[in-house]
Amino acid sequence: MRKMSTIKQFKRTAIKKNHPLLSSIKSIIETAFYGNNVVPISLVSDAYHLARKSPSVIVTDLPVEGALALDLPEDAKILVHNDGAIVGRTAAARRVIGQPGVDEKKYSALLREAIFEGANKYYYRGDVVVGLNENFMVAAHLLVPIGYEANFYAYLLNFQPFNARYQQRYQQSQPYNENDLYLYCDPDWRHPDYPLGLTLFDPKRNVAAILGLRYFGELKKATLTLAWATAHRNGYLACHGGVKQFQLANKTYTMATYGLSGSGKSTITLASHGQKYHVTVLHDDAFIIDQETGATTALEPTYFDKTQDYPMDSEQVKYLLTCQNVGVTLDEHHQKVLVTEDIRNNNGRAMKSRFATPNRVDHLTQSLDAVYWIMKDESLPPVIRIDDPMLAAVFGATLATQRSSAENVADHVDLQALVIEPFANPFRCYPLAEDYLHFKQLFTKQKTTCYILNTGSFNGYNIPPNVTLEMIEKIIDETAGFTPFGPVKGLSYSPVPWYQPDFDSPVYRQQFITAMKRRLAFIQEMNTKNNGYDALPEETMVRIQQILLELTT
Hints:
alpha+beta; Phosphoenolpyruvate Carboxykinase, domain 1; Phosphoenolpyruvate Carboxykinase, domain 3; 11-stranded mixed beta sheet; 8-stranded mixed beta sheet; 26% helix; PEP_carboxykinase_N; ATP-binding; lyase; phosphoenolpyruvate carboxykinase (ATP) activity; ATP binding
């Protein structure tokens, strides 16, 4: 009986045209992994040496903390690699097989040509595990051309390489009737019809091609896109967010935060709270929830953090492994050190080791006590509690926030404009209604409490991180008083000086009505966009209409 998680090999008698795990896209991508031009690299230490010698890499004089424990050379240094004009993810490049308007035959032909064009250069192959507990471990395989050693090294750091310990763990992991993940990458690819590049997914067969894109985040999120979809098909909630657990005097408090990059998700998840509590961190970006037990599992061992809050004298710098899109200068000792805080460009990034969180775990058996939707919506005070499970899921499905410098968007796009990103997950490749129903079940079956954190501004006042963290601490300590949120049933807020909602003010009342109408318009748009692929149940629209009625009567 097969024990390992995902499928890499097939019986000859099973290799047939009607096999559900085979497809044109899958065959095209996987076949490239077996070419004479593929160089397997199994050790992260070998990937480090390749990156260290790469012409595009800068070797700083900053040592890697705990290098041996990370399977790196003892004298390993923090490496720096910089891209060109584009320093963020390009959402417009995504195409997903199975979604309306995406022609599989067209993209199969395009992909065959792309791989043919790239066949005259050599590629590194790396193999990693996605998912850090035996209940969910997925094998992922990556091809990256020679010349992009920095991204290849970063990939093996971001996910878990198959060292001896993880080979054994993977052999004992829960089996799934799912393919291994295969990702083909060629940053040099160019096509006149795709000036922004192309990220092509066949999520049901767990393959992807990342073409014409250099930014490392494309590799990371493409892998997570496939892993999340696999988890979703097998009884898990796919989560773009962070989880931490507080060890209190007579209980634990486990919370999850959901937000886009730059919303405060990592700041909240990794905060030490002045050592007031014993805090355990699962992860700040990618995890899954077992829908039956409520247990959570991290998908990655490291953190891909923005460096805008890490000046050179920050304690966090010593935990960095490799950096992208940051500067380098000489210090007073004539040593090469980092120039961070987005001085060089926006969205400077670094791979940070798990040692940055001393109480890091990869799996929590306790179910979530609370979910926090992180928004940047000026109509909302710093903290709102949602007591209605359906409404909690509705607000998650209409999570209002702002874009950030982590995204490569057109020049005319206003990063300050309010946008709706359901469940803070732009990487979903299955219908939105499925996430809505699963989160609704989380709030009903698991009895998880739901809050909204506004980390933007309210009444013209910015909401700084210390205000947000203080309110979370009050909730944990059960000292946060909540009062009804005006006439809106199912919502209450915790009063904070300078951030008081005033429903007697026609200006504020209209501001909140406008925000709710924006959510209603989004739901209505989803009913028809892409032939209703992301249509939500009618109850979501009805529930918001009820709130609007409460506000206007």
